[in-house]
């Protein structure tokens, strides 16, 4: 399967927090501007989306939660599992956390009928 | 002492081989060869191995102590509200990389089973950078955690320190 690559570093050297209204270069913004359109393209063209997390000055867990979790509300879960690939050599546990915790938690949230965006 | 013992051993072996008369001499020859081998290993090989192991364990214990001290200071700064969001992310990344590396070597070189310092660090990271206090901090301002988050942070801090102490004890028991 062919691949499309996104580097978070090309979006921000210092990725921000969760929601757009909370600051700059947030997880929500990264999802809306980069991940969602490219994942749509990957589904349409039968490709994989590779997201490279390395090279930034570190993440807030909320940034990663927001930019990957949102996929669950917009795409089929099986498509996400099949087509999403994450590169994280510097902090290798992010990959497991996103696939084994973030995505299942967001799926549960969606199945429980909760809104994707929670007011804090 | 070693040289004297070796000389006597080699001389006896030499005499036994020259004056070999009956089958029981074979047992004596084998016994002397085994003794010589033991003497060499006790004198040279074992102390070197013990010294080398001691250096390795001391190195890892010192690494753990240094990391714990650095981590204590970092968490103290978070609790005091001395850091901005970007400083916190950067430091967590530094500790993630450092602890992943320590986990790798503690499992590989010290043969500690199921050691996972990074998981403890990540729980703390996710508590701090996942909470609303952190996410609602205005850019350029320091992150001030609410009491509830601070108490949870203190508990996780205690947990990782407890875990490091357990690892140091396990290393010393190796």
Q: Features of this protein?
A:
heterodimer; A: mainly alpha; 51% helix; B: 174 residues; mainly alpha; Four Helix Bundle (Hemerythrin (Met), subunit A)
Quick description:
Chain A is mainly α and 120 residues long. Chain A has helices spanning 8-11, 27-44, 61-69, 71-74, 77-83, 93-111, and strands at 3-7, 48-52, 84-87. Chain A has 6 helices and 3 strands, in the order βααβαααβα.
Write down the secondary-structure element order of chain A.
Answer: EHHEHHHEH
Number of DSSP strand runs of chain B: 0
Number of individual domains of chain B? 1
Largest interface: A-B, 23 and 26 residues
**CATH topology title of chain B:** Four Helix Bundle (Hemerythrin (Met), subunit A)
Helix and strand topology:
The complex is a heterodimer of chains A (120) and B (174).
Chain A lengths: L2 E5 H4 L15 H18 L3 E5 L8 H9 L1 H4 L2 H7 E4 L5 H19 L9
Parallel strand pairs in A: 1-2, 2-3
Chain B lengths: L1 H17 L5 H57 L4 H24 L8 H14 L1 H4 L11 H27 L1
Describe this structure in words.
The complex is a heterodimer of chains A (120) and B (174). By secondary structure, chain A is mainly alpha-helical. Chain A starts with a strand and ends in a 9-residue tail after the last helix. In chain A, strands 1-2-3 form a 3-stranded parallel β-sheet. Chain A is 51% helix and 12% strand. Chain A contains 6 helices and 3 strands. Chain A has one domain. Chain B has one domain (2-173): Four Helix Bundle (Hemerythrin (Met), subunit A), CATH 1.20.120. In chain B, 20% of the residues are buried. The mean pLDDT of chain B is 90. The chains are: A mainly alpha (120), B mainly alpha (174). The A-B interface holds A 14-19, 22-24, 57-63, 65, 90-93, 97, 120 and B 85-86, 88-94, 96-97, 100, 118-119, 122, 125-126, 129-130, 132, 134-139.
